[in-house]
Amino acid sequence: MNQIQSLLNDCLIKTKHVEHAAIIKLKDETVWASTLGFNLQPQHALLLSSAFFKNLLHVRREGLYFKEKHYKCVRADECSIYLKNEDRGLIAVKTDSYILVATYSEGMYPSVCVEAVEKLVYLRKPA
């Protein structure tokens, strides 16, 4: 396990309110690291990148189809996208260089997932 995977596990998974997490590099829209069992394909990385840079208004209105599930938008701005599908959810936070994405599932508190993901915003350079 590399240092980035350890960071994801220590800061997110150990909260017990984040099911899976990954970091996508914006430069080439590739998955830099992910937690065990979270297999993001290149098209998933591209979809999340496009959601921030090209389709933010569409995500707000229509939600997002991610990994064979439709998610409704709870919040979407230039830095964060929060999506929900029944008892599951997806949180994506954009920095200057990366997108940090995390999921939560039934029995997990969405607010704790959001807080844990947003705490890793130190990856985001100050404006």
From TrEMBL:
Localisation per UniProt entry = Cytoplasm
Q: Could you tell me what this protein is called?
A: Profilin
Q: What SUPFAM superfamilies does this protein's entry cite?
A: Profilin (actin-binding protein)
* Hydrolase in keyword set: no
Recorded family membership: Belongs to the profilin family.
* A GO cellular-component term linked to this record: cell cortex
GO molecular function terms attached to this record: actin monomer binding; lipid binding
Q: Which Pfam families match?
A: Profilin
Query: What keywords are assigned to this protein?
Result: Actin-binding, Cytoplasm, Developmental protein, Differentiation, Lipid-binding, Spermatogenesis
Primary location class: cytoplasm
